[in-house]
Amino acid sequence: TVAEKVKAFGTGQGGMITMKVVIGSNGSVLSAKPTGAYSGTQTGSCAAQALKAAKFPKSKNSTTVSYPFRL
């Protein structure tokens, strides 16, 4: 799962990483960016890559969400 991949990137760091995710109407992730302490870090970049591979159900509009992951 995406959560397992994100947690693997943060092994030994603990805490939470919050990701701002834009999901397109076709269900693909258009962008994923870490916020807060993990912004601009390797852990944040790896978490973004894991999220960009995720697929969501199709919808009428694109959606932006902030989602916390435990490291």
Beta-strand content estimate: 25-35%
What does the main sheet amount to?
3 strands, antiparallel
Question: Spans of 5+ residues with little confidence (pLDDT < 50)?
Answer: none
Query: What structural class do you assign from the helix and strand content?
Result: alpha+beta
Radius of gyration, whole Å: 12 Å
- Report the average pLDDT across residues: 91
- Quaternary structure state of the chains depicted: single chain
The helix fraction, in percent, is 25-40%
How are the strands of the biggest sheet laid out side by side? 2-1-3
Describe the structure.
There is one protein chain. The protein has helices at residues 2-9, 42-52, and strands at residues 16-23, 29-35, 63-70. With 71 residues, it is of the alpha+beta class. Strands 2-1-3 form a three-stranded antiparallel β-sheet, covered by helices on one side. The longest helix is centred in the middle third of the chain and has 11 residues, at 42-52.
